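New to this. Please check this fold:
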Amino acid sequence: MKNLFHNKTIFTLLTALILCLTILSCQRDDAAEDDIPQEELTNIVLNVKNLSTQEITSYNYSVGAGSAPVVKLVNGVSYEVRTTFLNGSEDVTQEIKDAKDEHFLIFDFPRSQVNLTRLDTAESTGTNGKVGLITKWEVIKVVNSPSPLLKVTLIHEPATASESQNGTAWGSVTGGETDAEATFQLSN
């Protein structure tokens, strides 16, 4: 009985130690620059300005809501798109600009033909290039196959980043982790 108690104690202590090490190894860097943890981003908003008509339409993706807003685009038209991030009703985009060396946006149009150019100013251009908070979309064909969509991913601390097109995505990274991700449907 004494040996059984001793084995249970050792097993319990080892289990607790492994659990603690697992939790600690999965936590993000606590540096001051890591100022917008994933759980604090509640909304990703695309402010889409038609460069022909100057009309601006906002599309608000609510993290965890399960629905994808439908972004209406027209073939042959160019748009200026400003991406903002919210924590509740608070705009936290400035925090991304303040940590511009540690953030990068990837725009993936897997079922559309859209050319993307990053228009970021020095305020949102870091060591990995232009973050992608201001972009120009030249729409070639919105509906290139069924159910077109746009996937926007905010990457934190990529080891490297490239602004160029990688398959259907504009931008690619090595390393880093996802701070936020949104999916928007696209239509004409």
Summary: The CA atoms of residues 34 and 99 lie 8 Å apart. The longest helix spans residues 2-26. The two ends are 74 Å apart (CA to CA).
